[in-house]
Design brief:
The complex is a heterodimer of chains A (210) and B (283). With 210 residues, chain A is mainly alpha-helical. Chain A has 9 helices and no strands. The chains are: A mainly alpha (210), B mainly beta (283).
Chain lengths: 210, 283
Amino acid sequence: MNCLQFEKELPDSLEGARTPEQQAHLSACSACSSLLADLDFIATQASSLNDLQEPSPRVWNSLEAQLRREGLIRQPARPTLHNPFWRWRNAWIVPVAAALLVVAGIKLYQPTKAGDNQPIAKQNVLPARPARSAISTEDSEMMKTVASRPPAQVAAYRNDLDQANAFIRDAQESLRNDPNDIYSQQLLMDAYEQKQMLYHLAMDQSDDEQ
Amino acid sequence: MSSGKCAAGIAAVLMLAGIAVGSDAVHKELHFKVGKHPMVSINNTYGPIVVKAGGDHEVSVLALLHSDKVELDQSKSHNRVDITTHLLPGADGKSGLVEYEVLVPPEASITLHSDNGRLRVEKLRGDIILAGNDGPIDVTDCAQGHVHVRTLTGPISLTNVHGHVEIMSVGGNVIMHGVSGTLVAVNSNSGRIEYDGDFGEEGEYAFTSHTGNIEAVAPAYASIDVLARSTNGSVQSDFSLEPRHAPFILKGANSLAGTLGKAASSVKLFSFSGKILLKKRQN
């Protein structure tokens, strides 16, 4: 079994027992075993999030709206992209994006405790950020997917990534100042959507190069 | 025509012909018979895609390939046409360039992607999904469908578009003229958002930015329910809005809430640090 065959069968194997061929391939292929570990991690995190707190219906409505906006669950079905390999190579985007939105939603609705009508005390304003802050492991991985592009495009991606992260930080700061403000919550959702788009376009681009 | 102009014209034609011959450019023409409401998808790494309304049952693709380092992959299944620019080893932004001109049935749904080429769509009535990195994106005279546009830094222009419109941009400016629908949502980071229209169709208009300014121009007769706030920027309005309850604290020049006319459409303008300006159209 090669990597392509493994990836084709992976969606099914995630839901059930793996075949001996798949196990053998996993033992021999670090890339596929790493991919599987990532997916397992996402699934585990998603389960634990569910255990932590059941978000209000509004969170799910917002999440559904975001996914519909992205065309991920819109009817009629959104045209799929052209490369048949694309669907699986990018399939991780969906759970990651969903997990991001769920995490964001939970964060938005957690701060005010039941019976406590007072919003959490305003946090101190964050210290001034450096012009170009360090990026997360996930962002580094995303940048790797565009690393083979011309330097100007790589720089543009990095700049866009910094802008998206800055938007997220500022929206989070607004939320800390007023945790119950639904428009700040929406601003944070929008910021995450931009980052999701950035990831999505980076993956599209890397598929084009294959 | 003077002899000088004639000579210049001949020289220009010869020069263009020479460029075409010397550049190994290849024209390819593809035709697909389709039924009602076909779906057409084109993925072009480098170069523009222009899509216009054509005949009712045919998709016509005219492609100009700029070198032999690029080829077209095509597939048609049932009512769906997929075209993908296939870069061969060694292809770059110049040799991998392909220019598309496509005619589709007016009710076709289309999905276009180009990294840096212009995406242009005219006179369609189906769903339109456009994605780009830094190329400009233009949608003109389209109605009835969903229009979804995503770009990183490419400027976006929508003119005379009616339907369900969703736009997302990191750094590209978003310019809308005569755009209306049940939902018109724009999510920008540093890009400027400009809207000039009547906020019609009892729709929901939601424009959000991080640092980009938001400017909306509407007629005096507009029927709108406005909420606007910029966390660290200013909010100004030319209109004398009827005050209304706001779901947030109105802070001086940073926010406003009010209605105009029968408040048929909802207008939400939110930014983190961009300036927000709601202007009354003159004339």
